[in-house]
Write a sequence for this structure.
């Protein structure tokens, strides 16, 4: 095993450990959140390698391929009614994204200023 392969492996392990630690600290360490992490990581790795192979013709990884590859499985999970985390779930104020708490804007009256 080469030094670069060891560094890649150590980097991935460090990232996984940091994600798990932060999720536990914020009380978000659920099975669904770990599924999100796994899907994003695996999709990112596949996307980065696949994009480099298709467009570069050589082995390696691309950043844009990794972003697209990581985003794709997460959007598919969300589309198939597996809403793991919504923005309101991560907020301390549960009404952060709730539409029912919004007040309608008053219509501007330009005639009063004319």
């Amino acid at each position: 095993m080469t030094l670069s392969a060891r560094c890649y492996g150590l980097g991935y392990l460090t990232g996984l450990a940091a994600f798990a630690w932060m999720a536990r600290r914020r009380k978000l360490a659920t099975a669904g959140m770990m599924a999100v992490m796994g899907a994003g990581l695996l999709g990112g790795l596949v996307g980065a390698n696949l994009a480099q192979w298709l467009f570069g013709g050589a082995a390696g990884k691309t950043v844009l391929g990794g972003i697209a590859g990581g985003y794709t499985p997460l959007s598919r999970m969300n589309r198939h009614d597996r809403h793991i985390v919504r923005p309101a779930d991560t907020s301390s104020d549960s009404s952060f994204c709730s539409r029912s708490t919004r007040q309608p804007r008053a219509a501007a009256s330009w005639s009063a200023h004319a």
